[in-house]
Amino acid sequence: MTAVSCPTVIERPRDLPTSMQQLASRAQYRKGDTIYYQDGPAEYGYQIVTGAARECALQPDGRRQVVGFLMPGDMFGFCTPQVHRFSGETIAETTTIARYPRHRVERLAESDPEVARHLLQLANDAVERLQNRMTVLTRPTALERVSSFILYMTDGVAGNANNSVVLPMSRYDIADYLALSVETVSRTLTELRQRRVVELFSARCGSIIDRALLQRYSENGEPRSHASQWD
Q: Cα–Cα distance between 99 and 177 in angstroms, integer?
């Protein structure tokens, strides 16, 4: 079998105003490090340079809900209130993050229209991420949710003509994001692989084989023509 090289960096490039770039400082994190705490002061905005992170909400009963994943190029934390509603945690072995002092960025935006427009775009991006998650969670079946998630992880990735799928998060992270059990997530991924819709090279990467069928699953769930075959 030919060895397959899985991409390790997902790129969602973003051009920042030069004046804003000059405010950045970089910090490196290991897997599982906390970037900021839920209910902690929101002093910085952030951009993932390399690696990946997740945003989590801790419920009063101790349950964890993953509310979003952040990949290279993604910017976050600029449009939150004075305190963070979620915690931010790294999920890659090594993650580099650019930090921007929020009060300095906000002052800059008052005199630099380009920065002001960029902050507005960041707010729109945050709303779009929330809308995407709400759309996924309204899907009634695990097949629809997992298929929608895989498509989301491939869309907007620069240079991804071969439909590579990179999943730096664990199956438990995916389950907490999709409001499913980890067993259901694993079983659904196995079914998609057996149906030759996706190919999994490892627990962390693969590729889409039949994008049209995956899109159909994400929208309509189990087609009637396949139902009896997989009972």
A: 25
Residue 28 sits at φ, ψ, to 5 deg, of -105, 145
Are 38 and 194 spatial neighbours (Cβ–Cβ below 8 Å)? Answer: no
Q: For 143, how many CA atoms within 13 A lie in the half-sphere containing its CB?
A: 18
Q: Which two tokens stand for residue 93?
A: 């072995």
Q: Which domain holds residue 79?
A: 18-136
Inter-residue contact 147 to 153 (CB < 8 Å) = no
Domain count, the chain: 2
Determine the 3-state secondary structure of 149 from DSSP: helix
Q: Do 121 and 159 fall into the same domain?
A: no
What mean pLDDT do residues 31-48 have? 93
* β-pair type (53-58, 44-50): unpaired
**Higher pLDDT residue, 50 or 135?**
50
User: Residue 185 is encoded by which pair of tokens?
Assistant: 């997530």
Tokens of 136: 């996924």
Tell me the chain's radius of gyration from C-alpha atoms.
Answer: 19
Alpha-carbon distance values, 93 to 4, 89, 154, 162, 176 (Å): 21, 12, 21, 25, 20
Distance CA 124, CA 113 (A): 17
**pLDDT score at 27:** 93
